[in-house]
Design a protein that fits this description.
The structure is a single chain. The chain is an alpha/beta fold. The chain folds into 3 domains: 6-125, Replication Protein E1, Chain: A, CATH 3.40.1310.30; 139-184, no CATH class; 192-362, Rossmann fold (3-Layer(aba) Sandwich). 31% of the residues lie in helices and 23% in strands. The chain has a 7-stranded mixed beta sheet, with helices on one face. The chain has a 5-stranded antiparallel beta sheet with strand order 4-1-3-2-5, with helices on both faces. A two-stranded antiparallel ribbon has the order 9-10. The longest helix has 22 residues, at 127-148.
């Protein structure tokens, strides 16, 4: 009694077939196509001969064919193998998508391989029109995956797509960013908050930009709805804010080092889960800043959010760390105001200064 292979009983609605002609009984694509047409319940098929592929050693790969088959009703791998005269191991259930399998026939989704022409594919449908319709969808899906992996961010989306693509797919991409935000809410947050203060004209904002110049930065504009144009940059500079800019509890939520909260904006609330650093600049020292709120609020809750405080004058940066035992900021270092010197003497910040600033932030 002939043994029935277990794989041959697997039921499928779509499959891919690959076979080297060296081990096949025919070499004409017309014969293979006639065998496919004779299969029961065949719905769609596309077949192509690959004779220009290269191995990793750059040697020519042996001539072979690929076929993608879909069926109106479930069939078995064994039935397909018998109909095409191949072993069952050459019939594979499609585990990705039929679209992806169809594109692979001409290597559209594998640009490192030889790109065959759609005209070389034999099919019972208009394969050229099918590929032309799939490629924009495939590209859109690739962009979506890059958004999910945070390779593409909202502020640099225009570097990856055209204005026409954005106009046609704006809602789709916005939904992708929303998915990313939902995903980020399940992950731990380690937000660093820095408070820079003192009088205007001491280059507080310039210092803030210097501290995070290796990151993409959003600088708030205006007191009302300061995060309206935030596009999920890694750093937020709340520039020259006043106590009336935020309610006390709103600022507490915004600067929470471990929990993401929605920030109120003009049209809809935004998440800042992607933000790694918030730098606040103000003409008021942080202690005076908190006194402006109601006496019923405990200012220490806000003080402890800002592990690093920098008080700037024309000649020096005075660096303070928040001391959990003393519940106040304690002076730990004092550096020359290199930003001031840079503008007054037209000299660049030295490397030592840049390294020390980076280490100061990382030490939080």
């Amino acid at each position: 009694m002939t043994e029935i292979k277990k794989d041959s009983l697997i039921k499928i609605r779509c499959c891919a077939v690959m076979q080297y002609f060296e081990y096949y009984d025919v070499s004409e694509i017309a014969v293979i196509e006639s065998r496919i047409k004779s299969l029961t319940n065949i719905k769609k098929y596309a077949i192509i001969i690959h004779d220009k592929d290269l191995l990793d050693s750059w040697e020519p790969k042996k001539r072979h064919f690929h076929a993608v088959l879909t069926f109106s009703n479930a069939t078995t791998i064994g039935a397909v193998a018998n109909g095409l005269h191949v072993e069952t191991q050459y019939v594979e259930k499609i585990r990705t998508t039929t679209k992806s399998a169809m594109l692979y026939l001409v290597h559209r989704n594998d640009p490192d391989k030889f790109q065959y022409l759609p005209e070389e594919v034999k099919a019972n449908f208009d394969y050229i029109e099918y590929v032309d319709g799939i490629e924009p969808m495939q590209r859109r899906e690739n962009i979506a995956q890059k958004i999910a992996n945070w390779e593409i961010k909202q502020y640099n989306l225009h570097d990856y797509i055209t204005i026409d693509e954005f106009a046609r797919n704006r809602n789709y991409y916005n939904n992708c960013f929303y998915f990313r935000q939902c995903k980020m809410k399940t992950q731990d947050r380690n937000l660093k908050c820095i408070f820079i203060s003192w009088a205007s004209g001491t280059w507080k904002t310039t210092l803030a930009k210097d501290l995070v110049r290796w990151k993409h930065c959003y600088i708030s504009s205006g007191w009302k709805n300061p995060l309206d144009n935030y596009a999920w940059e890694e750093c937020i500079i709340l520039d020259d804010i006043r106590p009336e800019t935020y309610e006390y509890n709103d600022l507490l939520k915004l600067t929470d080092n471990h929990t993401d909260s929605l920030v109120g904006c003009r049209f809809y609330n935004k998440s800042i889960a992607e933000c790694e650093t918030i730098i606040t600049t103000s003409i008021l020292p942080i202690e005076d800043f908190t006194k402006k709120w109601s006496e019923n609020e405990d200012p220490r809750q806000l003080l402890r959010r800002f592990k690093l405080m920098i008080i700037v004058d024309k000649d020096f940066y005075n660096y303070y760390y928040f001391d959990e035992d003393k519940w106040k900021h304690v002076l730990v270092d004092c550096w020359p105001n290199k930003v001031s010197q840079r503008f007054e003497n037209n000299t660049l910040t030295n490397k030592d200064y840049a390294y020390r600033v980076a280490n100061m932030i990382d030490a939080q």
